[in-house]
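quick q for whoever's on today - can somebody do inverse folding on this one?? i tried earlier but teh output was garbage lol. tokens:
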């Protein structure tokens, strides 16, 4: 079945959908996006993603393209038309189409909106998680407002490509203090040498991961000691466990960082348990 995309009020064949050449998302990366995991045909962490979407739009002064109710209707329709039961849904909102100029266009300029969806092979992702993945570390070189989920992702693209070329699944950015900030498309976690689950606090202008929030909640329910404070790359390499979280990654165990094996090279019990519980919550409509 051909994929269907939603572009500015129209449902179009995916291979024929497009935006205007002077769309500011194309010319300036002047836009934001969200990605939902889809389980059983339903969006996961709906409230968290909408809250972050509206925050990102507000921080950049981009108008909301339609009401919350209307947007939810369109999101569900994109899933229905693509017959997505297990997958990912992508939403992008740009400032709109206007003659190319760095300053904002007239306030009446309508924002652009694009929504797509794709299937995910859950069996393949589960096999990957059961084995664990490797990550590389790379110097932090992104702008200082990574808390806004913008489409300006070139440093992330380069980091992810570098990871791929080294046979890794993800890259973790490391700042000038030697502290891990986050991944190219995920939040970074470790279970440190003392058994404490740690992830960087969002006050550091890292992405306010929606899956991250859900995992923090699950860890609290399991009575796992959690500290939202940074860790160095060296601490990560000597940790009991490591993993990363995101809408696409869910909870993915990390078994190797650069050339160092983590936890003997096998997924740890904390990451494995949190992944199982997150997926269970998503399927039950609780995430």
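ok took a stab at it. sequence:
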């Amino acid at each position: 079945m051909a994929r269907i995309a939603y572009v500015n009020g129209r449902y179009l064949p995916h291979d024929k959908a497009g935006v205007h050449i002077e769309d500011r998302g194309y010319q300036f990366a002047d836009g934001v996006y969200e990605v939902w995991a889809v389980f059983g045909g339903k969006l996961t962490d709906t409230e968290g993603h909408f809250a972050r979407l509206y925050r990102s739009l507000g921080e950049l002064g981009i108008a909301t393209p339609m009401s919350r109710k209307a947007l939810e209707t369109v999101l569900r329709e994109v899933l229905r038309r693509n017959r997505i039961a297990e997958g990912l849904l992508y939403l992008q909102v740009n400032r709109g189409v206007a003659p190319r100029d760095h300053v904002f266009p007239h306030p009446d300029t309508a924002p652009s909106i694009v929504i797509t969806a794709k299937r995910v092979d859950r069996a393949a992702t589960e096999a990957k998680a059961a084995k664990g993945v490797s990550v590389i570390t790379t110097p932090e070189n992104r702008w200082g407002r990574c808390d806004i989920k913008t489409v300006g992702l070139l440093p992330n693209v380069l980091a992810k490509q570098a990871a791929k070329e080294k046979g890794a699944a993800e890259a973790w950015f490391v700042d000038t203090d030697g502290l891990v900030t986050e991944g190219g498309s995920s939040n970074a976690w470790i279970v440190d040498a003392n058994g404490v689950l740690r992830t960087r606090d969002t006050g550091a202008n890292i992405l306010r991961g929606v899956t991250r929030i859900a995992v923090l909640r699950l860890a609290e329910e399991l009575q796992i000691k959690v500290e939202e404070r940074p860790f160095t790359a060296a601490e990560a390499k000597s940790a009991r466990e490591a993993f990363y979280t995101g809408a696409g990654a869910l909870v993915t165990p990390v078994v190797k960082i650069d050339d160092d094996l983590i936890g003997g090279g096998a997924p740890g019990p904390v990451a494995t348990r949190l992944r199982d519980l997150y997926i269970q919550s998503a399927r039950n409509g609780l995430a």
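fwiw The two ends are 29 Å apart (CA to CA). also The mean pLDDT is 97. so keep that in mind when u check it
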